[in-house]
Amino acid sequence: DIQMTQSPASLSASVGETVTITCRASENIYSYLAWYQQKQGKSPQLLVYNAKTLAEGVPSRFSGSGSGTQFSLKINSLQPEDFGSYYCQHHYGTPLTFGAGTKLELK
Amino acid sequence: QVQLKQSGPGLVQPSQSLSITCTVSGFSLTSYGVHWVRQSPGKGLEWLGVIWRGGSTDYNAAFMSRLSITKDNSKSQVFFKMNSLQADDTAIYYCAKEGVADYFDYWGQGTTLTVSS
Asked: Are A91 and B101 an interchain contact pair (Cβ–Cβ within 8 Å)?
């Protein structure tokens, strides 16, 4: 199975800051990488797929990049609603696997 | 709009089975697959399996022997069943609609399962 390693595990930031979360795949997954946001007590929500394509309705302050084994999610000018947990997931065929998550907290 | 609504029990005894129904609207099960994912504090998000639009299934090898996913296209329902539950199966179980390529663009509200006697 493809292992997804996500970092950092937690991150403290202030409103207005820019943050970057990284995800590394254990083998080449080309651009088959998705990112999700999850708020406490809610289901995950799709942010990005195919490494850099924003899902419908996702603000442009979110951006995804990378290919092969190294990927990142960047959030510009953090807003209060951006705090929560973020997960990467490869979508290069089954079995699908997720990163362990990054908890983004308000400093 | 696209919705996935889950129904199922919240408490199951060890060795018993879990059955969850995922009722979808806003899309056809003959056009998109539905995946199942669970989330627990200890293991994070785990992909369990999928029923594809054509009716075939793929399962996580770790669960293959005790997992079954079926569907009724006419009722827009997907049925999830996991047998021989143990305490470490305690988790939130989600159904999710596939996007164009094996990512999940819509999720159910989740079914919180506790396995306990």
From this structure: yes
Closest among A10, A19, A34, A23 to A79, alpha carbons compared: A19
Residues of A in contact with B60 (CB under 8 A): 94-95
For residue range B13-44, list pLDDT tens digits in order. Answer: 999 999 999 999 999 999 999 999 999 988 89
Q: Which residue of A has its CA nearest to B97?
A: A46
Tokens read off for A10:
């937690």
Asked if the C-beta of A64 comes within 8 angstroms of chain B's C-beta atoms, the answer is: no
Q: Is the peptide bond before A8 cis (omega within 30 degrees of 0)?
A: yes
Q: How far apart (Å, rounded) are the C-alpha atoms in residues B85 and B17?
A: 6
Residue type, B71: K
Q: Give the gap in angstroms from C-alpha A104 to the nearest C-alpha of chain B.
A: 16
Q: Tell if the CB–CB gap between B94 and A43 is shorter than 8 Å.
A: yes
pLDDT band, very low/low/confident/very high, at A56 (cuts 50, 70, 90): very high
Tens digit of each residue's pLDDT (9 = 90 or more) over B44-99:
999 999 999 999 999 999 999 999 999 999 999 999 999 999 999 999 999 999 99
Residue B14 C-beta-side C-alpha neighbours within 13 Å: 5
Rg (CA), chain A: 13
d(CA A47, CA B5): 21
